Amino acid sequence: MESSNSVRTKPLYRGTQVVWYVLGLLEVLLAFRFVLKFLAANPTAGFTNAIYTVTQPFVAPFLSVFHMTKIQGSIMEWTTLLAMFVYWLIALAIVKLFFMGKDVSTPEAAVKLDELNK
User: Fold this and answer.
1) Which DSSP letter does residue 102 get?
2) Mapping DSSP to helix (H, G, I), strand (E, B) and coil, where does residue 92 land?
3) What is the pTM of this model?
4) Distances from the Cα of 25 to the Cα of 22, 44, 84, angstroms
5) Is 91 in contact with 26 (CB distance < 8 Å)?
6) How far apart are CA 78 and CA 37, in angstroms?
7) Nearest to 27 by CA among 99, 100, 92
8) Which of 75, 78, 82, 99 is a Cys-bridge partner for 66, taking CB atoms 3.0 to 4.6 Å apart?
9) CA distance 24 to 55
């Protein structure tokens, strides 16, 4: 088995930290967008405008997937929730990809293959 002191362990750990940090930051921004739309925040207010501007490129690919639900001025922007879910899946896939590059010993690989073939 690969020791915890392997040359590749620290970069792998740091890489996963970066992916989760970037995802966390993006998810917070998108959550702000969702809540501001839902609470019918003033779009010309500085903070609201900044959040909408920063998050627009991240929600743009999803804008026509669902219709927005409008309730007395509030907007339920389902596409923002979809974007949050898709970006979480992408981050998960990237982290899994990182771990695919992890060094493994022959016995460890044999055990993992046996587990997969059950």
Assistant:
1) S
2) helix
3) 0.78
4) 5, 23, 11
5) no
6) 11
7) 92
8) 78
9) 13
DSSP H/E element including 32: helix 9-38
What's the token pair of residue 78?
């389902």
How far are the Cα atoms of 20, 100, 117 from residue 27, in angstroms, in the given order? Answer: 10, 25, 36
Residues 83, 91: Cα–Cα separation, whole Å: 12
Per-residue pLDDT of the chain in tens (118 residues, 90 and over written 9): 444 556 667 778 888 899 999 999 999 999 999 999 999 999 999 999 999 999 999 999 999 898 888 888 888 899 999 999 999 999 999 999 988 877 777 777 777 778 777 7
The answer to whether 97 and 15 are in contact (CB under 8 A) is no
> Which alpha helices (H) appear in 39-75, and where do they start and end?
46-59
Structure tokens at 79: 């596409």
The encoded tokens of residue 72 equal: 């007395």
